[in-house]
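Progress against Task 2.4 (sequence-to-structure conversion) is shown through the following example record, which the project officer requested during the mid-term review.
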Amino acid sequence: MNILFWSGGKDAYLALHFYQKEHPDKKVMLLTTFNQLNNKVPHQNIDIHFIETQARQLGLDLTTVPLPPDCSNEQYLQTLQETFDNLEEPAETLIFGDWYLVDIRHWREEVFKEMGYQCCFPIWKKDIHELLNVLLLKPVKVEISAVKEEYQSLIKVGEPFNQVFVNQIDRLSDEIDPFGEQGEFHTKVTIQELKTPKEHIPKHLS
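Structure tokens generated for the chain above:
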């Protein structure tokens, strides 16, 4: 079982695309952690019911994991371990949509190696134009779902994330990564073409 940490945004979607392209025969399950008080994915500001819809449209199983607000790293990792222990099939590879933040990648590799899992980063340091072309050609709509307060005068929730947006941000500010890799903004992906839905109920860790 290969588990993709699914945020509902562009990075996770791209990670899924490139992982499945490289490993077409590997089984993938989505895993999403969310704030148990408001039922939203932290940072992305995406409702967990929207995540469940994405999983159905992609035809993939989904495990959702509620977490308390201000969850510590220790509690986060402990809850994930409990989740992995309760899966019907053992977890093998953990897949992440990190692009170039070395410290985050190293942290994931270190802590999950200690737990007995290997990590995979399908979009690591890929060319931004290659990533944008995938989003352009796929049957999806990508839009801004959340913006850091200091950038809200430049970026609006709901505006499309595309080549025009990237070019505009590049002209307006040197502080904002055009892919939002530093958390300047976050995105959500609306899938516009349905696969044959799988008859399954998303699994929740209570």
